[in-house]
Amino acid sequence: MDKKQLKMSTFNDALDQIKDGMIVGIGSGSTIELLVPKIAEKLEQEQIKITGVCTSNKTAFIAKELGIHIIDVNDVDHIDIAIDGADEIDNDLNLIKGGGGALFREKVIDAMAERFVVLADDSKCVDYLGQTFKLPVEVDKFNWLLVAKRIKAYDELKVTRRMVDDVPFITDNGNYILDVVLNEGINAAGMHEFLIHLIGVLETGYFLNVADQAIIGTTNGVKIKNKASLID
């Protein structure tokens, strides 16, 4: 199976967790763009209703086009379940997210959720965060270069401003993304604390101790990892 098929193999286990009347956090990225039509199909087939809260403008547009009821995050006081993808997943269900640039809104919604479920193919599983993917950091336009220099000095790190077609990428919040190549051995919690206290940093792509479950598509079938079992 190719990566698309592996991603889609995770959908049934995620869809089974969506129940009538739930407020559902709907994530961003290629995996979720494939999932949203399946959510719409489930609602129609089972004649149930949910309220969606989306982590990006693009996801919200797709969901609304498919007839899913979408509201603003400020109009809810809780989220029953959030479902999203990830760019990396370590053995303790810590994540790097933000490849699509929606990391701040993803973190808001995932942290609000009573249950956060991650969908991915097995290429996203790593031994340490930063092994295969750069760490996205959302920063204010005003002092982005100063922030980049501070980050570089942390551990002689390579930092680049994200570009798309030779134009700086702009998040839905109107900010830049800095992509940081992490050296092996960097402590994720310590690095996050350093970054989040830099003036101009809105949020980092570290999602630590947030995911409750990872549903992983592999060529040998779907594998499910639960945070509770890791703690036990």
TrEMBL record:
Keywords: Isomerase. The active site is at E106. Substrate binds at S28, G29, S30, T31, D84, G85, A86, D87, K97, G98, G99, G100, K124. GO terms for molecular function: ribose-5-phosphate isomerase activity. Gene3D superfamilies: 3.30.70.260, 3.40.50.1360. It is an enzyme of class 5 (isomerase). InterPro entries: NagB/RpiA_transferase-like, Ribose5P_isomerase_typA_subgr, Ribose5P_isomerase_type_A. Pathway: Carbohydrate degradation; pentose phosphate pathway; D-ribose 5-phosphate from D-ribulose 5-phosphate (non-oxidative stage): step 1/1. It comes from the Bacteria. It catalyses: aldehydo-D-ribose 5-phosphate = D-ribulose 5-phosphate. The keyword Isomerase applies. One of its GO terms (cellular component) is cytosol. Its EC number is 5.3.1.6. The keyword Oxidoreductase does not apply. GO terms for biological process: D-ribose metabolic process; pentose-phosphate shunt, non-oxidative branch. Transmembrane segments: none annotated. Catalyzes the reversible conversion of ribose-5-phosphate to ribulose 5-phosphate. Homodimer. Belongs to the ribose 5-phosphate isomerase family. This is Ribose-5-phosphate isomerase A.
